[in-house]
Amino acid sequence: MNNRSGTNKTAAFDSRKISLKSLTPYIFIGPALIALIMLVIYPLCYGVFISFFKTNLSNKWDFVALKNYISIFSDKTFISQIWVTLKFTFLVVAAHFVIGVLLGMVLNQKKAGITFFRAVLVLPWLFPEVVVALIFKWIMNPLYGLVNNYLLDAGLINDHISWLGDTRFAFIAVVLVCIWKGYPLVMVNVLAGLQSVSEDIYEAAKMDGANKVQTFFRIVLPSIKPVLTTTLVLDTVWWFKHYTIVYLLTKGGPGSDTSIISIEIYKQAFEYFNFGKAAAMSVIVFFICLVISKLYRRFLDNEE
What family is this (predicted)? Predict the structure, then answer.
């Protein structure tokens, strides 16, 4: 009798132990899952939900179905803003990769003092975007900015130029600031990828008679392609939906020359209080970014 009772207790203890063991993974992923639901999934679903309403997010909830989306796609201004955003993103990301890859290759060399330059060149990414925007707004100020002072002293210009207020220069000025801010992301990832490439590969290529250009394009780039693909997707999505620097520099002006889509979403929501339309624009931007990332991966995977 005692033996049977002891056996039952042992079985019950083992079952509780097995049950606790099976719950352990969920206990560990639980906090991260809750944070993901609260910070990503819920806001995304809520944004899709309110895009079907004309609402003030308080006591007015008029269901309008797809009217917000129809009004957006029938508005030529929205199409032009998407075009400006695509141009802005393409120029910024392309320059990031050219500068980032070149600097990553230079910093991958084993030379004295290279650690110092690695630390210095990553600084733009560490500065807050607000600080970067205010610094460059001061540098390009038409009256007392450093750019105008240096160019006037050098005799390259005869009068002060409003770099952020002139339609000829505003867009490219904003692009240059964003290039300076974002290239370290590509540089660091490329450097990390290059450092994972074995020295034996370089030696084998050298023995086979490959020059530096052939080694880079046929060996190095394919070796770090997964890093480049991930960085390309992240950098493109980041700058396609970028807001802070452009808004602080020009607020979308002059006219609509730098009016990227994120600024229009902000204005619709917090200046015109069209929260439903702003949410619909955000949903469209989300799907555009999703399509871009899918196209990137499909194109780069097909190259293999």
Answer: Belongs to the binding-protein-dependent transport system permease family.
